[in-house]
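Why do we bother with a discrete structure alphabet at all? Because it lets us treat a fold like text: something you can write down, compare, and reason about line by line. To make this less abstract, here is a complete entry for Sigma factor RpoE regulatory protein RseC. Read it the way you would read a sentence in a foreign language you are learning: slowly, and without expecting to understand everything at once.
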Amino acid sequence: MITVLAETIGGGDGYLIVRCQQKTSCGSCASKNFCGTGVVSNTFSEKILNIRVPFALFVSEGTMVEIGFEEQTILKFAAIVYIFPLFFMIVGACIGQLFAILMASSEGIVILSFISAGGIGVIIAHYFSHKLERDTRTIAKLIHVFEASVMETVTINATTEDSD
């Protein structure tokens, strides 16, 4: 299970809405300022995600919670979002190539069918990802509720020297 810390920002009957920051994979190595991935990662700000988590009890706003996602859920979403459009683009290019051979035309029809099939793949992936998102087995699970609120747990280090 992949876990992340989040802050509660609201809720309703049987659910909480939590806010967490999406973390990029880049940023921990020494050459992050010099490689292409690090430069792109630093250019775009980190995304704030609001996630709806089922929970029966009341938790006040600002409380830190730990939520978890099953690995297989993330793999399902990744497969849908990346594989569907790629598969449709490949099939579209093959069909376009077949039409180009049969009609003795240039590769313009191949490019057009590639882009059209890719667009259809994106639409289908969008539909299935939203369908999977509504499935209660694939949503985030609340693992732990911390007692202290966010403001009580945050401390600011005002010294200019490193700690020992």
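What the structure line is telling us, in plain words: The longest helix spans residues 71-103. The first strand starts at residue 2 and ends at 12.
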